[in-house]
Amino acid sequence: MTRSREEIILGDRRHVWHPYTPMGDYLSAGDPLVVARAAGSRLYDSDGRNYLDANSAWWTSLLGHNHPRLVQALKDQADRMCHVAFGGITHEPAVLLAERLVRAAPAGLTRVFYSDNGSTAVEVAVKMALQFHAQNGAPERTRLLSLEHAFHGETWAVASLSGVAAFRAGVEFSGPDVVQLPSPGVDEARALLELEKQLTEHGARVAALVVEPLIQGAGGMLMYDPEFLRRARELTEAAGALFIVDEVFTGFGRTGRFWAVDHAGVSPDILCTAKGLSGGVMPFAATLTSERVFEGFLGDRSRALYYGHTYTGNPLGARVAAETLAVYEDEAVLAGIPERAERIRRSFERMGARQGARAPRALGMCAALELGGESDYLADSGWRVSRAARRRGAYLRPLGSVVYIAPPLNISLPDLDELLSIVEESVAAVLGGSE
Length: 435
Ligand SMILES: *Cc1c(COP(=O)(O)O)cnc(C)c1O
Description:
By secondary structure, the protein is an alpha/beta fold. Helices cover 39% and strands 16% of the residues.
């Protein structure tokens, strides 16, 4: 490719519409990162500067950018077969990945349904849950429970589960019957109380409870105790409802265990995974479930799960994801987390103690704090920190007033220390008004 940085920016300004970006602000700032290359924990701009990626390419590159083994697996698979329909056809990468996923999964999750991204992973789960009840003697179970501040993606059914007001603005979502429960990341006692009330009083109408386990990501990196998951498991089971965990962000070691539910020692009925699953190399997702749910779709042809996407089971994605799981084992990725997590936690505690900052929190390879009085997705304070960090050599994408980091799990200790000092300096500069 031969275009200069300026030419790329010019073309971008003329024709490209970016996701989750107020385009007016973007166009008037006029100085996007133009990433030419990415490796390990760094992004390389075509102007010769590089940036530590505190965001792991939107939470996907958990093994660092362009992990050589994942790139090699992609190349090998591309030489052989890039894509083939997956309806009633199978191939080795899909089988290999299913076996490895089931081995890594919480007990009892033995069936794997593929799709392309986190939204569809949850969309499948929701359709599965509703149809499962509809054709297995409980058609009155049409209600879905989700949490305030939840984020489960952008397809319609899952967007209607969202508790992030900014993401719902201007659009009337009429979809499934959704009841939102208080978030345990805001008030744990109240959340437990309402969960219990909803499931004991109205549980017979509930198809499923859907949660992001331990960390509500896009809703503001709200963290909560594993106890909520244990209670959720008990109460859904007692009520006859399915328990769906969306591990799209938390899975693959982000929280320090392979799955966030591992901290609670519980198995859900359905688990959704994407993002880290394919190491930031290919869009890919999987929805895992139990034999019980799977068997609810057997029998008469009309009982099948008529669901899928054109690229379901894509061999490139499946091969890369299977390799991703092998790298976790071969490189003992989780064993490196406690030391890194401790540095992250201490750093956020120091920042959280500053005047103007509050609510520092950390779990595994994720930490957050808030600037100003109230958490606000449309606030500029986090973006000020982000601009200050960029000048110092780190890419940090805030959630409004929430500043967080979610770096690759295997970030080197020197890179991590550098990242943390950049974040600390940037937060100090913004709070001290000396950006
Ligand atoms: C990102 C995310 C999704 C959506 O994933 P996409 O790949 O962007 O569709 C769903 N759930 C959670 C918890 C996420 O963090």
